[in-house]
Amino acid sequence: MSFVDLVGIGVDRIKDDFELSAMLAQLIPAVAFFWFFALSVPIGVLQAKYGKKTLLNVGAFITGIGLILPFVIYSFGTVLIGFAFLGIGNTIVQVSANPLLVEVVPNNKTSSFLSFSQFVKAIGSMLGAPLAAFFTAQYGDWKILFLTFGVTSLLTVLWLSTTKIQESKNQESTVSLLSSFKLLNNGYILSMVLCIFLVVGIDVGYNSFSGQYFINNLGLGQITAENGRSIYFLGRMIGAFLGSILLTKIASRIFLVGTTIISLAFLLLILIMGPVSALVLTFLIGLSVANIFPLVFSLSVQKYPERSSEISGLMMMAVSGGAVIPFIMGAISDLSNTLFGMLILAICTSIILALVLSNIKK
């Protein structure tokens, strides 16, 4: 699941390689995360028919192909095609992996295990920038990163294929596109889907945009700015790990409200602090936002467990926020500066807080 976070390092490196504008560079996350909007609900229907494990393997295979393509043929066109395949594959992976995990863990530990999965995911996300720097220093080619992650994705297909998982069969055989979209008439589900749209937009926006903010507004060098992204994912990794522990003792709803408020505070502070403080705040932002996604997902599935495939499809459709929010940030940055682009993240967090507070007792 973490491999889609390569859009961040991709934006910085490819922007320089092809001398792209800020808005044009944000086409990279756009072509990747668009597919979450287009395919998530149909994939939810297909997984109800063919099984989550089967679809997960298909997604991992497509992800691998998408990553290897821009390594073999490097042009802006093949980069966009490769990231599109990465987005398609990762859409399938994320639609299938979360409910598959829910199915094999105890019900009272769903939030904790989903947070722990985000901890593991953050490890892969965090490795992108340092591996790119390592391959550049050792071999003069940062794109070896694509090959490394692509081969890993293909090996994952072999690994999962040998893992025995007994999937339950229930009324999800009646899942359809219509039944999925009808769930949006449910105010609670609609609010939680919007929360996913915004929190993924925040995550991808910070991942793909913070480097440019650090360089243009704070005067940091490229390597330091890229390492700032790794600091963010380190914070996410630790935050997810701590969340998996704390959620065994703290109610999910209370934890969600608290972590959203803290995230908003840090995102506002980073707009006014200097370079050193900004790097510290980057870690704290990653720490605080780490559990919002798994909390929203688990609360929704726990409330309507019999609709897990449909909910998963809708929520992964909302991951398209990772295409929309960064693109808006890039456009605003081109019209003004990167500070105002970063302000969008605080606005998104404010909306999440309002949605959570309005639905917390439902």
In short:
This protein has helices at 6-18, 22-25, 27-50, 52-72, 76-103, 110-139, 144-161, 177-182, 187-216, 222-246, 252-269, 275-289, 292-303, 308-317, 321-335, 338-359.
Walkthrough of the structure:
This protein has 362 residues and is an all-alpha fold. The protein is 80% helix and 0% strand. It has a single domain (2-161, 175-359), classed as MFS general substrate transporter like domains (Growth Hormone, Chain: A, Up-down Bundle), CATH 1.20.1250. Helix 1 crosses helix 9, helix 3 (27-50) runs antiparallel to helix 4 (52-72) and helix 9 (187-216) packs antiparallel against helix 13 (292-303). 56% of the residues are buried. This is MFS transporter. It comes from Plebeiibacterium sediminum.
